Amino acid sequence: KRGSYLRRFVKLLVLLIQSGWLGVAPSPTDEGALRAGHGEHGEPGHQEPHKDSYSTFASEFLESRYLSDDGYPFPTAPPVDPFAKIKVIDCGVTKGCIRYGKPGCDAETCDYFLSYRRIGTDVEYEMSSDTDGWVAVGFSSDKKMGGDDVMGCVHDDNGRVRIHHFYNVGQWAKEIKRNPARDEEGVFDNNRVTCRFKRPLYVPREETLVDLHLSWYYLFAWGPAIQGSITRHDIDNPPVSDHMISIYKYEDIFMPSTAYQTFNSPLCLLLIVALTFYLLMGTP
């Protein structure tokens, strides 16, 4: 219905322009053509008036801009997808991945997901977490928080996801103005914060920035945000990679979340074996 109204309006506007009702002034070429069509004393001549007037141009522009060959408005272009989905099929092949959550989870279902790959002199990171606030990765030399270079993706009150640079001072993350991230993009969808950005492999030596060509323990964290500012992470002991990660080695690492670690602990397995033995042997 809206397209029908637009079509009628454009056609009416074209007719008004062509008829001169909108007061479109003739161009200099129009005036020259009219003078050429008369004799020296104003008598009518035989030359055709010049066709390229402003009114003709305006009407033709409107018709070509808003109407198709059939006289219908051109369809609106479909919206462009602002964020390409993370491909987990490439994990361990063309990029490294770290998953934290339930077995078999991916970038859309893990509690936390991270991927990395080299692109020229940059490293591209992809992060996603089941949160409406922020998701981050820290580069540490000792598996502990404090003195760490951190990259975080923060969901603000306007619905945007921005990449920030932090430096851990003890348990507190201080935002650093110098942000090495570029080609950044992010989205908040299905109650998940997901982002992608690049960062240079080599940087000038500085306390708050590390060289990514070196290996580091990776710290993983996520949590709520208030007005675009991060607050304390969701869990007391955020997961940490059990070994140093090298961006030159594409691994596909799975780390079970706390809910799936119970039956993997040595103590729990020992108790299960003891209970099974007790039930098989019976009581004395």
TrEMBL record:
Keywords: Membrane, Signal, Transmembrane, Transmembrane helix. Residues 32-52 are annotated as: Disordered. Residues 1-26 form the signal peptide. Residues 37-52 have a biased composition (Basic and acidic residues). Residues 110-225 form the DOMON domain. SMART domains: DoH. Pfam families: DOMON (PF03351). The keyword Coiled coil does not apply. One of its GO terms (biological process) is regulation of glutamate receptor signaling pathway. The chain crosses the membrane at residues 263-281. InterPro entries: DOMON_domain (IPR005018), FRRS1L (IPR042789). This is Ferric chelate reductase 1 like. It comes from Cyclopterus lumpus (Lumpsucker).
